[in-house]
Each structure stands twice: as C-alpha cells, then as structure tokens.
Amino acid sequence: MSYIPSELSYTNTHEWVRPEGDGVYTVGITDHAQSLLGDMVFVDLPEIDAATEAGEDCAVAESVKAASDIYAPLTGFVVAVNEELEGSPELVNSDPYGDGWLFQIKVDDENEFTDLLDADGYLDLVDESE
C-alpha cells in the first residue's frame, strides 16, 4: 500500500502538489509512482523560468526500469528546482514527499489547483490500477 498524505493534492498521472503560498506550488511524484519506477538513476528537471502547461510533460524521471515523463499539474512557470536530485536522484525513492520534491511552479490561475484530486480521489485511482 502506497503512502498518500492527506494534506497534498494529486494528478491522475501520479504527481503530488503542495501549496506554498503566493501562488507557488511544490511538485513531486507520488510514493506509488516511485515504487512502480524503481530505483532512480537520473531526474531531468525543467529550467528555471520555463513555462508549464497543465497536463504537458516538463521533466523526466529515469530509473533502472524505465524513463517516465513528469507532467505539469498546473499552468505557470518554474521558479525553483530541487538541485539535490542532480547528485542524489534516489531521494525521489527514499523521501518522495519531502527531500525528493522535483520543482516549484508559480501559477497563472490558482483555480486550477481545485481541479486536482484529493487524497481519497487519488487512493481510488491507485486502487483501480492495481
């Protein structure tokens, strides 16, 4: 059973989203996603100031099993990336909701956030896929 924190929001493509205030949101991949991918060997993060479009790919997680696109959960632009992942991509596996975060987005429209899944909705999605 994957760990699904109730305070976060989720996408149907297995990204999690945490509001930080002032229209900034932190994004990562879920515990479920990292467990399916396996041991991370590289994470290709977006550039600072890169535009993001909700639902469009913006990063890549490479594991020993496969490479997987990471999709922007919200429209805006990248204001920070987790530089720790450059030397330690395994943080995505060991702490997907903490030190393994991927990037932060400053959003254009905070109403998009309300379209994301809550923890129960994401749990339903994960249960359907198993």
Automatic annotation (TrEMBL):
SUPFAM superfamilies associated with the record: Single hybrid motif (SSF51230)
CC per GO annotation: cytosol; glycine cleavage complex
Named cofactor requirement(s): (R)-lipoate
Keyword tags: Lipoyl
Cofactor note: Binds 1 lipoyl cofactor covalently.
Domain Lipoyl-binding: 24-106
Swiss-Prot/TrEMBL GO biological process terms: glycine decarboxylation via glycine cleavage system; protein lipoylation
Residues annotated with N6-lipoyllysine modification: 65
Keyword set includes Repeat: no
Function: The glycine cleavage system catalyzes the degradation of glycine. The H protein shuttles the methylamine group of glycine from the P protein to the T protein.
PANTHER family: GLYCINE CLEAVAGE SYSTEM H PROTEIN, GLYCINE CLEAVAGE SYSTEM H PROTEIN-RELATED
Family note: Belongs to the GcvH family.
Record text on subunit structure and interactions: The glycine cleavage system is composed of four proteins: P, T, L and H.
UniProt-recorded name of the protein: Glycine cleavage system H protein
Organism, scientific name: Photobacterium sanctipauli
